[in-house]
Amino acid sequence: MSEASTDLTSLRVLIVGCGNIAGGFDLGRPSGYLPYTHAGAYSRDGRFNFAACVEPDDKRRSEFMASWGVPAGFRSIEEALGSGNQFDVLSICSPTDCHAHDLGMALRFRPKLIFCEKPLTTSAAETQRLVAECAQLNIPLAVNYTRRWDAEVLKLQADMQAGRWGELRSVVGYYNKGILNNGSHMVDLLHLLVGPMDVVKVGKPIEDFFANDPTVPVWLEGHQGVPVLLACGHAEDYAIFELQLVFSAGVLTMEEGGLFWRERRALASETFKGYRTLDAGVRRAGQYPSAMLKAVDNIYRAIKQGDPLASTGESALAAQCVCEQIKQNARQDAQDI
Ligand SMILES: NC(=O)c1ccc[n+]([C@@H]2O[C@H](COP(=O)([O-])OP(=O)(O)OC[C@H]3O[C@@H](n4cnc5c(N)ncnc54)[C@H](O)[C@@H]3O)[C@@H](O)[C@H]2O)c1
User: Fold this and answer.
1) 66 within a domain of the structure (yes/no)
2) 161 and 79 part of one domain
3) Does residue 5 have a pLDDT over 80?
4) Angle between helices 313-336 and 124-136 (to 10 degrees)
5) Using one digit for the tens of pLDDT, what is the confidence trace for 120-154?
6) Domain contains 242
7) Between the CA atoms of 110, 128, 23 and 235, what dihedral angle is there, to the nearest 10 degrees?
8) Which of 176, 193, 201, 273 pairs with 287 at a CA distance of 20 to 30 A?
9) Do 20 and 62 belong together in one domain?
């Protein structure tokens, strides 16, 4: 399955954690698919060399090695470090509560870059410490808030900055499965599109997946008081990650996490003379499926020619700080009742 090149310019990769986002999501997909995983994207890109992987589960490790043509496998990141092998890129795809440890260990390899899954760690303080350590050691840290590499999102950012949708009136986001786990994806996306936001009020949290990471409804406020409301679905029902932006010129909705976008434009009403209304709109495919390929291309160019990373430790930390404040406010409100 691997198409990874082994020429001198290729980058040696160590993948830590061999589950879904490492490669599992892409197994069994039809040929020619656009990859959603680290292994899928590195393989398709062709400028990376899968040197080794770390996975404590023996069966999963050998299956991963066979599926992606990885020649070396280790039970732990300590074992990989002890092997004396060197790597250019470490991809951290272990469960979130392992990230702080794995990031600390990853730095000891002195790689050219670390690509870490989101959220970076389970606490903003720990994330801040590790982001600072990466900076101190001059090791670039890319974080997989994937939509920062989605061309559709970047076009929207440019359109908004150029005023092509007119004034932004309000935003509503829908998410589930944890304010840190998935809510941080939403806050990070909003930081990109809307900019910094204050937390105005939180609603009643629900525990729909993780015991220590509730899903919390929240009212945020962006630049010039633009209201941003995050409403919740329940993770047991279905996955939901959608964003609706109300502009003076129309309404734009990101659906299914960015797989689709729906555009409705304001026009003169045919029914009510003198009124303006929204048209029926069009639903079109988005460019989220290409985002992982763009991410690894950004990583390659960041290493080879010093390109800036689209998603960094700093931007991830900013999103995590907002999520942590939301969580704290929800906890505080529950105590006050
Ligand atoms: N960017 C995204 O959209 C996205 C999507 C899914 C998951 N994620 C993130 O990716 C991470 C992994 O999620 P997943 O769904 O792939 O989980 P998973 O459970 O499918 O995979 C995690 C793997 O890590 C292994 N593991 C456990 N402890 C380890 C350790 N100490 N060192 C190395 N490996 C270890 C597990 O055995 C498992 O195989 C999480 O942080 C999650 O938030 C991000």
Assistant:
1) yes
2) no
3) no
4) 160
5) 999 999 999 999 999 999 999 999 999 999 999 99
6) yes
7) 170
8) 176
9) yes
Is the distance from the beta carbon of residue 117 to the nearest atom of ligand 1 less than 6 Å?
yes
Give, using CA atoms, the residue closest to atom 27 of ligand 1: 94
Same domain, 40 and 166: no
Neighbours of 332 (CB within 10 A): 10
Report CA-CA distances (Å) from 168 to 128, 154, 171, 183, 184.
32, 16, 8, 21, 22
Tokens describing residue 229:
């409301």
| Residue 16 near residue 77, CB atoms below 8 Å | yes
Residue type for position 240: I
State the Cα–Cα distance between residues 112 and 218, nearest whole angstrom: 38
Residue 92, classed as helix, strand or coil, is strand
Q: Is the CB of 19 under 6 A from ligand 1?
A: yes
How much distance in Å is there from the Cα of 17 to the middle of ligand 1? Answer: 6
pTM value is 0.96
Residue nearest to atom 31 of ligand 1 (CA): 98
Range of the domain at 84: 11-117
Whether 245 is in a domain gets the answer yes
Size of the chain, expressed as the number of residues it contains:
337
Nearest to 11 by CA among 70, 86, 75, 66: 86
Nearest to 249 by CA among 337, 129, 123, 165: 165
Contact 299, 112 (CB under 8 A): no
Q: Tally the domains of the chain.
A: 2
Q: Which atom of ligand 1 is nearest to the CA of 54?
A: 33
- CA quadruple 220, 325, 255, 158: dihedral sign: positive
Cα(170)–Cα(54) distance, rounded to whole angstroms? 44
